[in-house]
Design brief:
The chain is built from three helices and nine strands; from the N terminus they run βαβαβββαββββ. The chain is of the alpha/beta class and 187 residues long.
């Protein structure tokens, strides 16, 4: 049963299979937040979320981090001209506003697949001379990696499936679903 309600009319719901329930996501986030709280206890930490997918994860993670001075900022990245044969061009349409020099940065991703945009973002942030840069992801698809980048903190490694829900979208729909679903049939 679809606990999140109906899929949008232009999405055939029987193509999507329940994959990860909200309770499991909450448990993963609680564990990740505890680890981050211990690591950065008493320090400043800038959470940077690539829009739009990271919003829910970043929000839930930030609420659970304890004894850390947390700053939140966002970037908006998009890939243009990307194909299997081409790396494409990464466009930065919204940059961070926070001064990150000598601060700890935690890039908060909902899912890492090819890693191209994340690789671009991390290399860009290094130029701002932060104290540290780490990456946390709720879901990781290491088999899709096209560049040499990996997360420091991984919530759950998943198979190479197209997933929606909990911030992940299909044509901008499904981000608000509490559960995560995977597409049964290829696009």
């Amino acid at each position: 049963m679809d606990q999140d309600g109906k899929f949008p009319n232009n999405i055939v719901s029987d193509q999507f299979v329940p994959y990860i329930e909200a309770s499991e996501i909450e448990s993963i986030i609680e564990s990740l937040a505890h680890t981050i709280s211990q690591k950065y206890k008493g320090e400043d930490l800038v959470l940077i979320g690539p829009l739009k997918g990271s919003c829910l994860f970043l929000s839930d993670l930030a609420k659970r981090i304890k004894n850390v001075k947390v700053y939140i900022d966002f970037v908006n990245l998009s890939a243009v001209g990307r194909s299997k044969e081409s790396n494409g061009t990464i466009i930065l349409s919204k940059d961070i506003q926070t001064n990150v020099m000598d601060k700890n940065i935690l890039i908060v991703e909902e899912v890492i697949d090819t890693g191209r945009a994340l690789y671009f973002l991390k290399n860009r942030l290094v130029q701002a001379n932060p104290s540290s840069i780490e990456i946390i992801t709720l879901f990781d698809k290491p088999y899709k990696r096209a560049v040499p980048i990996k997360a420091d903190y991984i919530g759950k490694q998943i198979d190479d499936q197209f997933i929606v829900g909990y911030g992940l979208d299909l044509d901008q729909y499904c981000r608000n679903f509490s559960n995560v679903y995977y597409l049964k049939y290829p696009n």
